Task: structure prediction
Amino acid sequence: MSYRYAYNFTPEQLAFLVHCINETRGIPGDIFEIGCAAGHTTCFLNRHLQTSGIAKDYYCIDTFSAFTPDDAAFEIAERGKKRSDFSCFRSNSLKRFKYTLKQNSCRRTFCVQTDVQRYELRRQISFCLLDVDLYRPTICALQKIWPMLSPGGIIVVDDCKPDNQFDGAMQAYEEFTETQKIPPRFLLDKLGILQKKREP
Result:
């Protein structure tokens, strides 16, 4: 079979995610990936945890189906996006996602099928990859994650790139950083970074 690159991140972006996990390995809290698509990045990062001896639970939060109708409608009505922009991810399923994790021997993974706007975070977080694309779920997730993020913890928001179909994530990131009085920090073409200050 011919090889097909399966990631929505460049090698350099994947390396940066690994760097973030390494930097936060001694910080209390679990790892969260919110918006998981088919699970390729999940498997990659989980394998890194195993081979690096980082003993943390890995939570996967996603609808495992598609964008919610309300979130897509907001992008169309309030942000001027085309209706056809939001037909992706419909082929995803929780069953297929779990099978992918099993086939790749992922460990300490916990899958929660839900809209992040309905999910109540109860666990301390050391690192979070937030990749829900649209404005409403991104701003809601940031508001929920930040209080649970340990000092020194890192959030990486994907799709922080202007003038593309998923630039709602960038709008949410910029609004949140302004509210929190945190200078926005963009890396590697599309990653928005948030790191909570360590306690003195």
